[in-house]
Write a structure and sequence with these properties.
CATH architecture of the largest domain: 3-Layer(aba) Sandwich
Subcellular location: Cell membrane
Strand content: 25-35%
Number of domains: 2
Bound molecules: adenosine-5'-diphosphate, magnesium ion
Largest sheet: 7 strands, mixed
Protein name: Heavy metal translocating P-type ATPase
Number of helices: 13
CATH class of the largest domain: Alpha Beta
Radius of gyration: 21 Å
Family: Belongs to the cation transport ATPase (P-type) (TC 3.A.3) family. Type IB subfamily.
Order of helices and strands: HEHEHEHHEEEHHEEHEHEHEHEHEH
CATH superfamily of the largest domain: HAD superfamily/HAD-like
Distance between the termini: 7 Å
Helix content: 40-55%
Length: 294
C-alpha cells in the first residue's frame, strides 16, 4: 500500500465523518467479514425516557421515584439518566443526594439514599443480594420485555419495591445500515447486556437474526474472541464503557462519536455522528482505497 493512497483514503474518511486512528486501519477494515453491534446507544438512540412505574404492595410511587431517581442521578448510564430525569419531573421536586453510590457494570447501581440501602438494575443485581421479585413485579418485567421495553427492578432495605420501565427508540438509519453491511458481505450480530426479549425485539426491528443477550461487560470480549477463534475477522461497533474491552480486542473497533470517551479511545475508527450507516461507508472506502493501490 502506498502511503499516498492511504493518506487520501484517510482524508476522504474525514469528509465522510470517519476518524481513522492510523492509515493501517484501512487494511483491517477491508478484511472484516463479521460485524458485532452493541444495542443501546449503537443500534438504538440511547436516549431513553421513563415510562410505566409499577410499585410493590406497601410502596408509594413517590418513594420509589425519589429513591431510585436520587441514586440513578449519580450514574451516566442512559437508563439512569432517563430514570433520574423522569423521577425529578414526576415528583416535581429536588431529588435527594445519595450518601454513597456504586456503579455495578452491566447490572445497575447501588447506594444509600435517605439512610436506606437502595439497589436499581437487573433482577440479577437484586438476586445477588438475596432479594427476590414478587410475582406482580416479575410479571411486569416480563410484559415490558416482550414488547421491547427495558425494565429495571428497584429494592431497598432488603425487599423489592418496584419496577421502572424505560423505552429507547431504534435509530432511523439502523435497519438500512444493517442491510448495507449485509450486502457488503458482513455477518451482523447483536451483542447486549440487556435481556433476551428486548434484544430479540430490537434485532427483529433492524433485520438481525443472530443475538447474544444478557452478556456481562467483561464477557463481551469473549464473544468477539470466540468469533475470531472460528476464523472470522471481527468488526465491533459500540459506544459504552462496557464495550471498550471488546472494541480493543476486535480486529477492527468502531466507536460511536456520540459515545463515551472510553469507547472512543479503545476503537480504531470513530463514526463521528454516531450513524451506523457510516460503518458501511467505512468498509466501502477501505475496499476502494486499497483496491486502487493493488
Ligand atoms: P448494553 O450492552 O445494551 O449497552 P449495559 O451492559 O450497559 O447494556 O447494561 C445491561 C443492563 O444492566 C441494562 O439493560 C440494565 O438492565 C442494567 N443496568 C446497567 N446500568 C444500569 C443503571 N445505571 N441503572 C439501572 N439498570 C442498569
Ligand atoms: Mg451501549
Amino acid at each position: 500500500a502506498t502511503p499516498t493512497a492511504l493518506m487520501v483514503g484517510t482524508g476522504r474518511g474525514a469528509q465522510l465523518g470517519i476518524l481513522i486512528k492510523g492509515p493501517e486501519v484501512l487494511e483491517t477494515t477491508r478484511r472484516a467479514d463479521t460485524v458485532v453491534l452493541d444495542k443501546t446507544g449503537t443500534i438504538t438512540t440511547g436516549r431513553m425516557t421513563l415510562g410505566a412505574v409499577h410499585t410493590a404492595a406497601g410502596t408509594t410511587e413517590a418513594d420509589l421515584l425519589r429513591l431510585a431517581g436520587a441514586l440513578e442521578h449519580a450514574s451516566e448510564h442512559p437508563i439512569a439518566q432517563a430514570v433520574a430525569a423522569g423521577a425529578a419531573d414526576r415528583i416535581a421536586g429536588e431529588l435527594p443526594a445519595p450518601g454513597s453510590f456504586t456503579n455495578v457494570p452491566g447490572l445497575g447501581v447501588r447506594g444509600t439514599v435517605e439512610g436506606r440501602e437502595v439497589l436499581a438494575g437487573r433482577p440479577k443485581l437484586l438476586a445477588d443480594a438475596g432479594i427476590d421479585l414478587p410475582p406482580s413485579l416479575s410479571d411486569a418485567m416480563t410484559d415490558a420485555a416482550s414488547q421491547g421495553r427495558t425494565a429495571i427492578a428497584v429494592a431497598w432495605d432488603g425487599a423489592a419495591r418496584g419496577v421502572l420501565e424505560v423505552a429507547d427508540a431504534v435509530k432511523d438509519s439502523s435497519a438500512d445500515a444493517v442491510a448495507e453491511l449485509r450486502a457488503l458481505g458482513l455477518r451482523p450480530i447483536l451483542l447486549t447486556g440487556d435481556n433476551q426479549a428486548v434484544a430479540d425485539a430490537v434485532a427483529r426491528a433492524v433485520g438481525i437474526d443472530e443475538v447474544y443477550a444478557e452478556v456481562m461487560p467483561e464477557d463481551k470480549v469473549d464473544v468477539v474472541r470466540r468469533l475470531q477463534a472460528e476464523g472470522r475477522s471481527v468488526a465491533m461497533v459500540g459506544d459504552g464503557v462496557n464495550d471498550a474491552a471488546a472494541l480493543a480486542v476486535a480486529d477492527l473497533g468502531l466507536s460511536m462519536g456520540t459515545g463515551t470517551d472510553a469507547a472512543i479511545e479503545a476503537g480504531d475508527l470513530t463514526l463521528v455522528r454516531g450513524d451506523l450507516k457510516v460503518a458501511a461507508d467505512a468498509i466501502r472506502l477501505s475496499r476502494r482505497t486499497l483496491s486502487t493501490i493493488r
